[in-house]
TrEMBL record:
<dbReference type="Pfam" id="PF07147">
    <property type="entry name" value="PDCD9"/>
</dbReference>
<dbReference type="InterPro" id="IPR010793">
    <property type="entry name" value="Ribosomal_mL37/mL65"/>
</dbReference>
<keyword id="KW-0687">Ribonucleoprotein</keyword>
<keyword id="KW-0496">Mitochondrion</keyword>
<dbReference type="GO" id="GO:1990904">
    <property type="term" value="C:ribonucleoprotein complex"/>
</dbReference>
<dbReference type="GO" id="GO:0003735">
    <property type="term" value="F:structural constituent of ribosome"/>
</dbReference>
<dbReference type="InterPro" id="IPR052482">
    <property type="entry name" value="mtLSU_mL37"/>
</dbReference>
<keyword id="KW-0689">Ribosomal protein</keyword>
<dbReference type="GO" id="GO:0006412">
    <property type="term" value="P:translation"/>
</dbReference>
<comment type="similarity">
    <text>Belongs to the mitochondrion-specific ribosomal protein mL37 family.</text>
</comment>
<keyword id="KW-0809">Transit peptide</keyword>
<dbReference type="GO" id="GO:0005840">
    <property type="term" value="C:ribosome"/>
</dbReference>
<dbReference type="GO" id="GO:0005739">
    <property type="term" value="C:mitochondrion"/>
</dbReference>
<protein>
    <recommendedName>
        <fullName>Large ribosomal subunit protein mL37</fullName>
    </recommendedName>
</protein>
Amino acid sequence: FPGVRQAQWLTKTKLVEGLPPAVQGIMDNPAHGLQELEERAKHAVSHARLWDTPEVAPRREQYCPVLFENLIHICRLMSGKYPSLSKRMLARNCRIAATWERESILLQVRGLSGILMNSMTPIPPVASKEEVLATREHVLETFYPIAPTIDLQEVNVYKELNDTGQCFGDGYPYSHPHTLFFLESANVRTNRFRPEQLRAKMLMFAFGNALAKAKALHGNDPKVLEQPVVVQSVGTDGQLFQFMVFQLNTTDLVSNDGVKNLVWIDSDRNLYEKAQCVPEVKKRVVTKPAGISGFQPDTFKKFLALYLHGTV
């Protein structure tokens, strides 16, 4: 069955389609000047897809990371307007481990959690206390007679780990997970996660980072959090983008009752429709010039709004 539905059950999470009002408000506010960076974003796409390599057509494993770095560079330009954006750090190859009990099953998410942007300050909760309490009425989907853990790997767990990896040593100033970035840059399609699989992976690792942080702050006792932990996630294959905001409201995950966690997902957004790396010529006439077509400014604005979230 589809990955996100399974991830929702495993993490006791209610899904909300689209981005939360806090992020949408950043996109819609002309005072932030997001539209002024659209030309830079188009240039970033052209650089990654057309100009970064002498090859006629760059491979995805090359242009996907280049595009990501270009977009992050544009985001950093906003620190002149919002100095607190400089209190961020990108960490690569961070390992995460988080353990929890769901019904009678001990679960663990662990591994490399993409590229992690850390912040000195946490993202404020995006759902109000009333919205959080209202999740008590939400009924989680079950998969009976299929077990929701049917395709999970079974291992012997000798130590129940809950840590945010090597990125956060004692006294590390950028101690709050902000946004995870997953680059599905494999050139061969079968080696890449499909969009639905990628969204499930994004949810599990956003949850894992939030849970490990909550336990570090509040201990291991299951409880509804007075101050929920928010972790964002962005996934892309260099053209198609997935956006996610996860709010951990509770570490009491054993039963299906009570307060649920929340996730907002905005799915399958193209940054551009096509990259024509070489012109198409028919009978000595250029029928399709080289270039980027179908640039979607809203997709770029969502990327930038998630970056700005928690600061503006």
